């Protein structure tokens, strides 16, 4: 018998409260096949890490981040090991002011605590106080700054061959010219096709792939030195500099900030 995160009617039906939420803590990995629903979904992590498959991209959801999935958007979900997180489902008619495309955001303590409160509600029409909290969640989502946590996939078979090889061994430091020779494509063509099909240069795509993998490994509690070596960095400092430049903090401080006990009061 399937284990539901939340009552199915609170996901599929336009009836009932316009916002419903639930929390989930699990000790083992979990995967959900591609699906969609009429309500928009904001999916967040408190500890551990999940990835969301959306169109031709994989989006990583590390701790204290969330992914907004608009109504009717097909997606799949996978968690990595022990995980604690939450989901908010918002009725389609209330999604008009919200982003029309999937979006990754960094969640503020106010949003996380409002969701925590909403997750205790019984799934019936909201009273006045509950409606105010639900409105806070929607307002926080609408105002949240977009984060870059997705990795687009190319379609050209030659590029796919390269990205698949890189994904299986991110420590491979071959230059673009070497990858082009390996895949049987001219370097200039490879460079141009990467930008056209992913919106990123080859170097940017590889850095993004390494960053998302780093977030997974940080969530698993691996030492920074181990992560740096697995991702092909010559030294730990170079990895930490990249992480700080993109995420705005060091891997160690990021892991500490992901502590779910960092709560606001509402």
UniProtKB/TrEMBL annotation:
PANTHER family: HTH-TYPE TRANSCRIPTIONAL REGULATOR NIMR, TRANSCRIPTIONAL REGULATOR-RELATED. SMART domains: HTH_ARAC. SUPFAM superfamilies: Homeodomain-like, RmlC-like cupins. It comes from Paraburkholderia sediminicola. Residues 160-257 form the HTH araC/xylS-type domain. GO terms for molecular function: DNA-binding transcription factor activity; sequence-specific DNA binding. InterPro entries: Homeodomain-like_sf (IPR009057), HTH_AraC (IPR018060), HTH_AraC-typ_CS (IPR018062), RmlC-like_jellyroll (IPR014710), RmlC_Cupin_sf (IPR011051), Tscrpt_reg_AraC-type_HTH (IPR020449). Keywords: DNA-binding, Repressor, Transcription, Transcription regulation. PROSITE patterns: HTH_ARAC_FAMILY_1, HTH_ARAC_FAMILY_2. The keyword Transcription regulation applies. CDD domains: cupin_NimR-like_N (cd06124). This is HTH-type transcriptional regulator NimR.
């Amino acid at each position: 018998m399937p284990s539901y995160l939340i009552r199915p009617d609170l996901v599929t039906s336009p009836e009932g409260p316009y916002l419903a939420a639930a929390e989930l803590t699990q000790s083992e990995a979990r995967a959900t096949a591609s699906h969609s629903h009429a309500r928009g979904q904001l999916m967040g992590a408190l500890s551990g890490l999940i990835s969301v498959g959306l169109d031709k991209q994989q989006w990583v959801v590390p701790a204290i981040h969330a992914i907004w999935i608009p109504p009717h958007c097909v997606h799949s979900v996978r968690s990595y090991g022990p995980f604690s997180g939450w989901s908010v489902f918002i009725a389609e008619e209330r999604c008009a002011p919200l982003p029309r495309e999937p979006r990754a955001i960094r969640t503020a303590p106010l949003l996380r605590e409002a969701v925590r409160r909403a997750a205790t509600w019984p799934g019936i029409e909201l009273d006045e106080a509950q409606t105010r909290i639900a409105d806070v969640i929607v307002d926080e989502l609408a105002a949240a700054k977009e984060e870059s946590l997705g990795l687009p996939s190319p379609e050209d078979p030659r590029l796919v061959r390269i990205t698949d090889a890189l994904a299986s061994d991110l420590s491979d430091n071959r230059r673009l010219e070497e990858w082009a020779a390996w895949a049987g494509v001219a370097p200039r063509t490879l460079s141009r096709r990467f930008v056209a099909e992913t919106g990123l240069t080859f170097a940017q795509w590889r850095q993004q792939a390494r960053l998302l993998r780093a977030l997974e490994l940080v969530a698993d509690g691996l030492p920074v030195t181990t992560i740096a070596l697995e991702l092909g960095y010559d030294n730990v400092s170079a990895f930490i500099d990249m992480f700080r430049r993109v995420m705005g903090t060091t891997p160690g401080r990021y892991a500490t900030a992901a502590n779910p006990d960092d709560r606001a009061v509402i």
